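User: Fold this, then the next.

Assistant: Folding the first:
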Amino acid sequence: MELTKSEWETLFPFHLALNEQLAIVSVGPGLRKLLPQLTTGELFGERFALERPSTDINSIDVLKSLANTVIIIRVRDEPFSLRGQAVIKANGVTLAVSPWISSPEQLPHLGLQLRDFALHDPTPELLFMMQGTAKSLQESRELSYELHQRSTQLQLAMHEARTASLAKSQFLANVSHELRTPMTAILGYAEMLLDELQDSHQREYVAVIHNQGRRLLAIMDDVLDLSRIESGKLTVQFEYFTVNELLRDTEKYFRAEVGIKPLTFRIQCHANIPSRVHTHRASVMQILKHLISNAIKFTPNGEIVMTLEAIDSKQGRMLQIAVTDTGIGIDLEKRHDLFQAFMQADDSFTRTYGGAGLGLAISRRLARMLGGDIEVTSELNSGSTFSLTVDCITAQVESLPIERGEESDSSGGNTRFNYPNLPYSIYVAEDADINRTLIKKLLELAGATATFGCTGRAAVQDITAEQQSFDLIIMDIQMPEMDGCTATRLIREAGINTPIIALTANGQEEDRVACHNAGANCFLTKPIDREVLYGAIADQIEQYKELQATVAH
């Protein structure tokens, strides 16, 4: 039944009737009181805007489509809105609305009283409320479905990212293994040739092979490390070690390389250096290798000085290691590119000196992982100074054997290696033929007897056999049939406490932790450093003997 105009004004005093052209044809008395300036004939859009749903009212059909929806109409330039429903009529649409207020206390601010609201059947309001609730439920269901879809997509993306990350990690591990395994043989046999050859020219040729092999290995390590850093896979594990160990390793590493040029390599320590520091030793050593190698590369002659000093900074007490050279220097305009990956100060540097442009980029990232940084000062044709700071001053300051002003000199030279005496029975698990031959030769030169196994499974069988007894085990980690960590774990579960040295081409911290958790006593990386290998064998056997003697008493 169609309501008359009088009935509409009684039941809906705030109604608003529109014709097909969206012009106002009737206004309820309550709405007139609120908006006395409102006149018939005025277009709806000039005074009102649809706030919910947020839709432009450009035709009467839009309002008709909202007939079963609770709507909210904003009154332009007025501090209130209208809430209600659109009712379709033969000649247009009537909006049955009321001022949208949250409490009666708001009425005086609008110039209204309770009597301005008609006493009518609450059924329409109940219907409006139910329709609004149904709409809200529908919107909620749609939102819930959308959230579920997005959650599913996010989980899928995370799974794909984890899978890609795992695949990349596995790829890096395989690449590292495949590259380091042949480099072990190349560098190892070159070192032994240097000891055996008598002809100076032949020794010079082999020295070049050895040095260039180390250079190639450094580039491979840089590429792998940059990939690990960018993927968040490179981790550092802080440890205590003495500064003298760092000095000894640095001097030993660059002894031969410095000797190729007319250079002097000196190490100076200030008196305030602590005897022990706490940081990631391998990372510090890697940074120094980059800094000193660059100094050697860009210094035709003269000297390179590494200076160690404890300094105060905003972060606290820091260790500063400065590498100063008398080389070609760096132009001020070119310095901003130094720490960018694959960049050098000048393209001509690459043609003249070689290099992939990764060393300084990796060094700065490693330094910042250690709580420090790298800075550079330089003048063209006047040398450079690269200063590494590391947050590692944690031990009490003690005097070092190298006192202030005393220098450690290295002028290089191809001195012959002195092989130690290690008359032990050693089991070696190694799957690469060429590396087995190399390790056999290295152990024999030191007076040791070697027994070999090609797989982890064979190693477990040989070592757990009752008739077998070995002084030490060298366990390769990546082997067919059974990996070295699994083999180590099974050997320990069999009650065998023989020292085990884990030998792997994967030198990341997680690899070290995995080997330690499996029961290995020591962790070495390929290519094999014979001096480090001999030292590890002697140390592990000595520690085992001391432990056995303690248990016996």
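Now the next one, as you asked:
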Amino acid sequence: MIRHHYTLEHIAREVAARYCGATLVEAWTQEKYTVAMVFAVNDELRTIMIDTTPDGGSISEQPQLRRARSNTRDVFRPLWNTPLALVTKHPDDRVISLWFSDHQVHCEFFSSGNGNVVSVRDGMILEALRDTSERCDTTFSVNAPSSIPLWEQQSLTAQQALARSPLQLGPWYAEEVCRRAGVDPSTHVSDLSPTQRDQCSTIAEQVRTTCLSTRSFYVLTRGDARLLSLCELQSWTASEKLSSALEATTYLLRERYRIEHLRSKRATALRTLTNDVQRAQRTLAALNSDGVRDARSERYRMWADTLLSYPQQHERDRTTITLVGPNGDDISIPLNPAHSIIENATRLYDKARSAETAALHREQRIPELQRKINELEERIAKIEQADTIRDIEASSPQRMNTQTHDPRDEAGGRFRVFVIDEQHTLYVGKSAANNDELTMRFAKQNDWWLHARGSAGSHAVLRGVDADRIPKPVLEKAAAITAYYSQARNASWVSVVYTQRKNVRKPKGANVGAVVLEREQTVMVKPSIPS
């Protein structure tokens, strides 16, 4: 519920407390639903990311977000170099407003892809993130969504009535009210007793008061679903409790990304393994059907023996011949008219031997195939239960015949590999030339690059960071390893610089392993290889 009325109230308060008085340095967009607004706060640049995507809708703080060199455009230029005076949440709708001296930026967190960010002056929209032609030069207004007085519409369920009431509870808080009142959320209003209605009304007011006054923000879990709530909900499990709405929103978005990434990895691995199982099962079925035809070799040999008893061995141009078999019965034997009787007998002996060899091969392959199917099914079961990307990769198809390689080594052994945690992997160069290969060819633009400041040593590339900054525990471990593989290994403390790969370049004619950084940050660590 990151764009619920109550959550947006808290976010507006936090943004006001942190940014009122700060000067807007620039604002830009790279996607049609998002705007980055960079503020100067006490000589530090901080970024507010406004996200109005249909499945998102949030404001999050991004202290170290950097603007890409291309594929971005400036927005709201008249507001640049202007201090932020006020931040409010509209009382009737999901709109957060940033107030400048004579302009306002209204962030509309509407669902169904209707979110937008607009700048307004004197009540008129001057610029819009989306639907520019329709919104610009029109009057900005907020039409409060229609709400239904509580218990007035008898055909609604108790949950629906609470969710749509002027209390602005929404479905999840409405469900919680029903559970606390001991009422089935699907019970219709017409079936509620006066006592149940009064109890639900009282608890609804309590929940609303708790949500608006809380200083705790919960990330709740139910299966793969994650939910941001301002109070604990009975049908959900609290996985995280934070003291900041902005931090809780950022954490939730990362968790949702992680889960979606995990789900995508699982689906890909399961699809491949399922196809492998189906192919093996088809082969097994074919081999079993061949087993029914095991009598072919005996029949071919009997036909060949019978043909050799025919006196005209060199006779040709016959497609079939009827002779007396070993049991005294007449048997019809198919022939190749291009071959003589004796040549047909020789071919039948060959076919008999081939059928015997095939039967022996089949007997050997059937148990091997069954073992393979069992192994694949075990891998499928493990992937279905896997909680981390690493667990999925350990059982994924590409691991079946490459057990000697680390599952996270995308470089195939070219560099030192350190698995920091289930998401982050550090690659460390082995020589000056290897450093060049690691930095200039292997590293991706959004990977993080590390090196001991002022000391010769290995380049290091951290992969798996899905946010604008490295989590502190991951950064400290990666920096400690980087310092360990430098000439400052024996120092008590080492300064390690880090930046994204896109900020690293190699000047023309530079020595092997030499690079230039366009921007950097530092961290002090003790050189070590953490356990």
